[in-house]
Amino acid sequence: MALRTGISSRILRSSSTFALRSMSSWWRNVEPAAKDPILGVTEAFLADPSPDKVNVGVGAYRDDNGKPVVLECVREAERRIAGNLNMEYLPMGGSVKMVEETLKLAYGENSNLIKDKRIAAVQALSGTGACRLFADFQKRFCPDSQIYIPVPTWANHHNIWRDAQVPQRTFHYYHLESKGLDFASMMDDIKNAPNGSFFLLHACAHNPTGVDPSEEQWREISYQFKVKGHFAFFDMAYQGFASGNPERDAKSIRIFLEDGHLIGCAQSYAKNMGLYGQRVGCLSVVCEDEKQAVAVKSQLQQIARPMYSNPPVHGALIVSTILGDPDLKKLWLKEVKAMADRIIGMRTALRENLEKLGSPLSWEHITNQIGMFCYSGLTPEQVDHLTNHFHIYMTRNGRISLAGVTTGNVGYLANAIHEVSKSA
């Protein structure tokens, strides 16, 4: 009996050692992930003790004191919501009221598409979540398709379609020398893509370049899409925040709709309502008829179910309260215009300061571009010099967030840019 007990003990010890060794090796091959190029800038900025440091990498609005802003319309909506509602789950498709109001922003108050119930739409986790839902939808129902993405684009676009396992191609967009739109090359790529290709388009305030097609160019793009039978998926993260006018910022989408395209659209309230942390957005897909819209929406909900089950409620309530009340909506339109105007004002100030310093370079592109970001034309080496010698932080592609520029630091920023670029 003692012998048998001893053998059993050794077996238990041996199996325990093996189990511990196996468990300890489960994650042995996991390497640290590369730092996000945008979030890494903020981390470095926060670690810098210099009193002169400037962060023009952040993709969030700041006031002229460099402080985060909560809109008054948002504060009022929160006051109305507080204590009046329960915390029950939303449906998989999210807040019906929020989605209804959001579609009006993108497609128009009197849109026949809305009246005819031809739009399949669900609440999403801001613009990122809307893009990811669509990417998975594309993979599931057009498994042999690819997505054409502009060069450059917001870096996360590549991550989203990659993780949805949709093959990616690129098309020309930004012209390096002119610091504007490479329209001719873009049109060539649209013409040469296989018929029925998927294209990712920025509806307004292209990120990171701030370069948008003109209205006439959008009409030519739409026409060529129709000739080729391409599908346009619009990422609209900056409606209202680009020009200060939500109707003007939705012009690209309206042109495509006028031409009869069945488009997809990702919308977000991070920028234009300052609801960054609330993750409020919407994914919509225009369909042939109501029956098709019902089917598409049901499939979008099925994709969302194992991802996050249903979206959060608080941000959706804020949006629907603001857009559903005429007075609050009027206040929001006033506040979003004020944000856009400040950004536009900082563009002008930065260009003027550079020109006053006698820079031999043209800085017209600063005021020709639109939205939160300015694609400065600075090289990665010049950006490194700005960081190392002037404590100015931005992404290495030279993208400047105008939200981080203030009347207090614009002169310092201009002088630093002038110093690193005057020998270029």
Automatic annotation (TrEMBL):
It is an enzyme of class 2 (transferase). Its EC number is 2.6.1.1. InterPro entries: Aminotransferase_I/II_large (IPR004839), Asp_trans (IPR000796), NHTrfase_class1_PyrdxlP-BS (IPR004838), PyrdxlP-dep_Trfase (IPR015424), PyrdxlP-dep_Trfase_major (IPR015421), PyrdxlP-dep_Trfase_small (IPR015422). Pfam families: Aminotran_1_2 (PF00155). Residues 52-417 form the Aminotransferase class I/classII large domain. Transmembrane segments: none annotated. It catalyses: L-aspartate + 2-oxoglutarate = oxaloacetate + L-glutamate. Signal peptide: none annotated. One of its GO terms (molecular function) is L-aspartate:2-oxoglutarate aminotransferase activity. One of its GO terms (cellular component) is mitochondrion. Its cofactor is pyridoxal 5'-phosphate. GO terms for biological process: amino acid metabolic process. Keywords: Aminotransferase, Pyridoxal phosphate, Transferase. In eukaryotes there are cytoplasmic, mitochondrial and chloroplastic isozymes. Homodimer. Belongs to the class-I pyridoxal-phosphate-dependent aminotransferase family. PANTHER family: ASPARTATE AMINOTRANSFERASE, ASPARTATE AMINOTRANSFERASE, MITOCHONDRIAL. This is Aspartate aminotransferase. It comes from Nyssa sinensis.
